[in-house]
TrEMBL record:
Domain Glycosyl transferase family intervals: 210-385
Stretches assigned to the Glycosyltransferase subfamily 4-like N-terminal domain: 24-203
Binding site for 1D-myo-inositol 3-phosphate: H11, D22, A23, G24, G25, M26, N27, K80, Y113, T137, R157
Annotated protein name in UniProt: D-inositol-3-phosphate glycosyltransferase
Species assigned in the record: Nocardioides cavernae
Length: 418
């Protein structure tokens, strides 16, 4: 593998705080992978759209990792749905940056999400270097399992994703399930898909003791803490947890005095249309006294929240992977997750957590009650969670990604020779 990679993350910057707006697991993925690649001697330039005139053009995010802020469209107020109109401007600036460098400056392009893939395809052909693409989420998958109140992805995105699948030399899938979706729904060639699990920073997310974490956060030591962490939008299903909590309290009113339900994150996506919807729901269900809304926090603080929880709920309608679930498990906390997408890989049912086949509040209440009522089960699953999380490390992700770049280069050489 060569010396420099152009990482394209158009719609969200790796410098943004995960848990609000469009920032989430993908932001963590891009910055953590870039850091590990840099540690292997690969210089990484991350191209992202500037969202403020105050942002410097170039920021050194880590040794060997530069984040380049590209001016494309108005700095603020542009929704993700409006970004396709800025692809040409963004691509022009990316190409201009490369043109100012010596010939052959980049050795590979790695794009993240379909918007970036459109730009990556153009850069691939202009620079004659391989394109590796990570979807992260896919319109066809999302539209098959829409949350109530969520908006279907438009046909323009579906077509755009199909074009990126066709253009990429290699597609990185987070799980075997995502690889099958790329082949079955998008017609990807099976030998053009590489399964590489994302990782978790095991130095940040590690068991620290529930009592210690609760003291740090001012939570009662004997509380039943059911945590949601992530962007507040229908896709992530935080309302499923709140409705399940309503059922729990209906079934056992005595639980109210020790139940704490922290919701760590901010509105995102279609959730921005009704930013108070979740708080309104808590009021409507009569559980506002047990729900705590916490703004997005750093990775270090999130690790403390995860350690403090009795269980972390991940009720998403679709997840290509589910980074929050791995992080929680690495902290020693069982995860109760929807049995969808990558979560069936990330969470081992009855070993590191519990998988729920539906989004029905009563089914979720039943699963959560098992943990609230059985400290021994929490401890057993917590031990299994730590062991399972060891399988996911960013170092392993980086090594596999370097091999993917080599494979992509080989596939491109074959294509050019034929």
């Amino acid at each position: 593998m060569g010396e420099r990679v152009a990482m394209i993350s158009l719609h969200t910057s790796p410098l943004d705080q995960p848990g609000t707006g469009d920032a989430g697991g993908m932001n963590v993925y891009v910055i953590e992978l870039s850091r590990r690649l840099a540690a292997h001697g690969i210089a990484v330039d991350v191209f992202t759209r500037a969202t403020s005139s105050a942002l410097p053009q170039v920021v050194e995010a880590a040794d060997g990792v530069l984040v380049r802020h590209v001016a494309a469209g108005p700095f603020e107020g542009l929704t993700k749905g409006e970004l396709p109109g800025q692809l040409c401007t963004f691509a022009r600036e990316v190409l201009r940056t490369e043109a100012l460098q010596p010939l052959g400056h980049y050795d590979a392009v790695h794009s993240h999400y379909w918007l970036s893939g459109q730009v990556g395809a153009l850069a691939r052909d202009r620079w004659n270097v391989p394109l590796v693409h990570s979807m992260h989420t896919m319109a066809k998958v999302k539209n098959e399992a829409l949350a109530v109140g969520d908006t279907p992805e438009p046909l323009s995105r579906v077509i755009g994703e199909e074009q990126v699948v066709e253009a990429a030399d290699l597609l990185v899938a987070n799980t075997d399930a995502e690889a099958r979706q790329l082949v079955d729904l998008y017609g990807a060639s099976p030998d053009a898909v590489e399964v590489i699990h994302p990782g978790v920073d095991l130095s940040v997310f590690a068991p620290r003791g529930r009592a210690e974490a609760r003291r740090a956060l001012g939570l009662p030591e004997d509380a039943a803490v059911l945590l949601f962490a992530g962007r507040i939008q229908p896709l992530k299903g935080p309302d499923v947890l709140l409705r399940a909590v309503g059922v729990l309290l209906e079934q056992d009113p005595g639980l109210r005095h020790r139940l704490v339900v922290p919701v760590v994150g901010g509105p995102s996506g279609s959730g921005l249309k009704h930013p108070t919807a979740l708080a309104d729901l808590a009021d409507e269900l009569g559980i506002a006294d047990v729900v705590r809304f916490v703004p997005p926090v750093s990775q270090g603080e999130l690790a403390v929240w995860a350690s403090a929880a009795t269980a972390v709920a991940v009720p998403s309608y679709n997840e290509s992977f589910g980074l929050v679930a791995v992080e929680a498990q690495a902290a020693g906390t069982p995860v109760v997750a929807a049995a969808v997408g990558g979560l069936t890989t990330v969470v081992r049912d009855e070993v590191s957590g519990l998988l729920v086949d539906t989004h029905e509040p009563r089914d979720w209440a039943s699963a959560l009650r098992r943990l609230v009522d059985d400290p021994a089960l929490v401890e057993r699953l917590g031990r299994g969670a730590v062991a399972h999380a060891q399988e996911f490390s960013w170092e392993r992700t980086a090594q596999r990604t370097l091999q993917a770049y080599e494979r992509a280069a080989g596939r491109m050489r074959v294509e050019l020779a034929s």
